[in-house]
Amino acid sequence: MTDAAWIETALTTSRPRAVAALLRYFRDLDVAEEAYQEACLRALSNWTVNGPPRDPTSWLIMVGRNTALDSVRKRSKQAPMLDEEHLSDLEDAETPMAERLDDSQYRDDVLRLMFICCHPDLPATQQIALALRIVSGLTVRQIARAFLVGEAAMEQRITRAKAKVAVAGVAFEAPGPTERAERLAAVMQMVYLVFNEGYSAGPKDEARADLADEAIRLGRLLLRMFQTEPEAMGLLALMLLQHSRQPARFDASGEAVLLEDQDRSLWRDKLIQEGLALIDKAMRHKRTGVYLVQAAIAALHGRAKRFEDTDWAGIDALYATLEHLQSSPVVTLNRAVAVAKTKGPQAALDMIEPLGERLSGYFHFHGARGRLLLMLDRRREARVVFDRAISLANTAAEAAHIRMHIDRLIAESETGKRT
Amino acid sequence: MMYAVLCYNNEEMVCGWTKGQDDAVMAALSKVHDKWEKASKLKPAVRLLPTSAATTLHKQKDLVIDGPYAETKEALLGFYIIDVEHLEEGLAFARDLSQANPGGAYELRPIHLYYPGSPIDGVYEADREYAGDKVSAK
Fold first, then answer.
1. Does the beta carbon of A265 lie under 8 angstroms from any beta carbon of chain B?
2. Model ipTM?
3. Hey, of B52, B69, B129, B136, which one would you mutate to test binding to chain A, going by the most A CBs within 10 A of its CB?
4. CB of B20 within 8 Å of any CB in chain A?
5. How many whole angstroms separate alpha carbon B27 and alpha carbon B50?
6. Non-local CB neighbours of A138 within 8 Å, separated by 6+ positions
7. Contact between A266 and B52 using a beta-carbon 8 Å cutoff
8. Strand ranges (DSSP E) for A12-162?
C-alpha cells in the first residue's frame, strides 16, 4: 500500500523531468502534458495496488510515452492497442531506462522545458505563470490565486503565452556549450523571478508565498543538474538565505518587520546552514557571479547573531562588486544602506541623489531616501518623500511600513506644537 | 551490538516536502527517538544537508569534486548510532522509524569502532529549529 501523500509528492517531484522527457519524444508541449496527465492517472490506480516503483520518474515517462503512442495508434488504427497487461510489465523495463535517463540528456531536457518559459517576448509575469503551469504543474486556479486574478483571466494569459512560445519554436537537438550556458542564465533568472514573487507576498497571502518554496525546489533541480556551476550554487544559496528569515519578517498583525527589528531566533537555521555551505563550495571556483555575490550579502546578514553585529563594511564591498558585475541604480540604492551604516547618512544620501531621475517611480528609492532624510533630521523633506513612497507602495505591508514613519512624524510635530 | 542505521531515501522527494510535511515527519520521528533514548539504546544521530551541498575529495589525485561521492537515486540522508541487544532489536528500531517516515530503506551496519569525539556545538542540535517554531506558533 502506498499512501496518498507519498504519491502526491512523487508526482510533483517527477513532473519536470517526466514532462521534459516526454516533450523530447513528442516535440509538442500539449501532447507531452497530456501524456504526463494520463501517466499520473495510471499511477494513482497502479501504485496504490502494486506499491510504489523504485524510480517514479522513469515509470511516469514510460507509461506516459506508451499511452500517448497508443492513442496515436488508436486514432490511425494501424496497430492494436496495448492492454493493461503490458503496462503492468513496466517494472522490468524500468532499470535500463532509468540508467539511460541518468545521462546528461536529462539535464538538457529539463533545461529545454524551463527555457521554453523564458521566451524574451514574454513579460516577466507571463514567464512565471507559464513556468508554474508547465514546469511545476500548479493548477491554473492555484496560479490565479497567487497572482490575485480570476481563473478565466489566468487561463487566457497562459494560453496566449503558450501560443507565443509554440510559434517561436525551440531546438530539440542537444545545445552546444554556449547555448547551454545562455539557457541556464535565462532559466536562473526566471527561477529568481518566481522566488521574488513569493518573497514579496504579504503574510496572509499564502498562495503567493508558496511560490518561494516552489522556486527553491526549482533551484535545487537546477543545481542537481549543474552540480559544478557556482552560479547555480549561488542562486540556491541566495534563495535559502532570504527565505530563512520568513518566520520573522511579519509581526502578529501582519506588518512587515525591518531586518533590524527581526527576532533572529525565529530565522530558520537549517536553511541558513545549507546556504552557507553552498557559498563555501561556490567560492572554491573563484568565479564571481551576480547570484553568488547577492548570496554572500545575504550570508553576512545570516551570520550576524544580532543586527549590531552586521558586517556593513563587508556588505558595502560586496555591493561594490555587484555594481561592477551588474551596474544598476537599484544595486547602488542597496549599497547606500550599507554606506549609511559605515560612513553615515549624508554619504549615503549623496550616493543616491543622482539616482532620483531613474528611480523616481520606485517605491524603495523614496522609502530609503525618506529614512536617510529622517536620520539627518530633515523632517519636512522626509514627510514629502514618504508621501511619494506611499503612493508607490506595491503591497499593503509596504504601505503600512511607510505609514508608520508618517504617523510618527505627525505625532512628533503635534507634540512639538504643544510644547 | 552497536549498529549504524544508515538512512537512504529519494532525496528529491525529501527535499520536495513542504515545511509542514517535514515538520510532521520530524515530529513523528522524535517520538521514536524519545522511546529508544529512554531505553538508552539511541546514541548520536545525524541528519545531513542535501547531497547538492556535498563536496568530495578523491584521495589519490587530491581531486575536489562538487557533489556526493556516489550519485544514486536513493541518497544517504542521515544515520543513527544504536546500541541494541541483537540484530532483531535493531530491525525493530528501523521498523519504528519506517512507520514514522515511509519510503526508501534503512541499512543496518554493525559498528567496528566507535569513537565519540568531542561534543558538538549547540547550534547543530537536532531540535533547535523545531523548538524555535513551537515558540513562534504560540
1. yes
2. 0.82
3. B52
4. no
5. 20
6. A132, A146, A214
7. no
8. none
| CB-based contact B73 A54, cutoff 8 Å | yes
Q: Tens digits of per-residue pLDDT, B45-99? A: 999 999 999 999 999 889 999 999 987 778 999 999 999 999 999 999 999 999 9
The C-alpha cell that represents B66 in the structure block:
562538487
Please tell me which residue of chain A has the smallest CA distance to B72: A102
Residue A313, phi then psi, degrees to nearest 5: -65, -40
* Architecture of the domain whose range is A4-102: Orthogonal Bundle (1.10)
Q: With beta carbons under 8 A apart, name residues in chain A contacting B123.
A: 269
Enter the C-alpha cell of residue A19: 514532462
CB contact under 8 A, A228 and B18: no
The DSSP output letter for A256 is: B
What is the model's pLDDT at position A416? 65
The DSSP annotation for A188-202 comes to: HHHHHHHHHHHHTS-
* Assigned C-alpha cell, B52: 547538492
Instruction: Note the pLDDT tens digit of each residue in A371-394.
Output: 999 999 999 999 999 999 999 987
User: Is any Cβ of chain B less than 8 angstroms from the Cβ of A328?
Assistant: no
- Please name the residues in contact with B118: beta carbons below 8 A apart, sequence gap of 6 or more: none
Q: For B83, phi and psi rounded to 5 degrees? A: -120, 100
> CATH 1.10.1740 residue ranges in chain A?
4-102
A121-170 per-position pLDDT tens digit? 888 888 899 999 999 999 999 899 888 889 999 999 999 988 888 777 77
Selected for mutation to probe chain A from B10, B48, B51, B128 (highest A CB count within 10 Å) is: B10
Segments forming the whole domain that contains residue B76:
2-115+123-137
Number of domains in chain B: 1
B129 vs A55, A56, A269: nearest CB: A269
Tell whether the torsion through CA atoms of A10, A13, A17 and A23 is positive or negative. positive
Chain B nearest CA to A14, separation (Å): 9
Average pLDDT in the A294-301 region? 96
